[in-house]
Amino acid sequence: MKREVDAxxxxxxxxxxxxxxxxxxxxxxxxxxxxHDAREYDAVVASGEQVTAGLLAIALQAIxxxxxxxxxxxxxxxxxxxxxxxxxxxxxxFPN
Length: 96
Hints:
By secondary structure, this protein is α+β, with helices and mostly antiparallel strands. The chain contains three helices and three strands.
């Protein structure tokens, strides 16, 4: 990612939860209640991806990449909302 940014490209990265985390979060929902609301279930299960995205953004910032978590962007292959990391330095949300 850094190499692409250093070459002048704007980069967007879609992340997934770390191995085993989604299954763990699903199990926590089931343990809390066998009948749960879909909205809260989605929020809990998506938290694994939020952690990965935040950690990746922090790691990229540590090596000089102006990365930002862009939570809840739509995945082009589905209706799901997924966290992304963006590096567009022209975006006003990025400090210079």
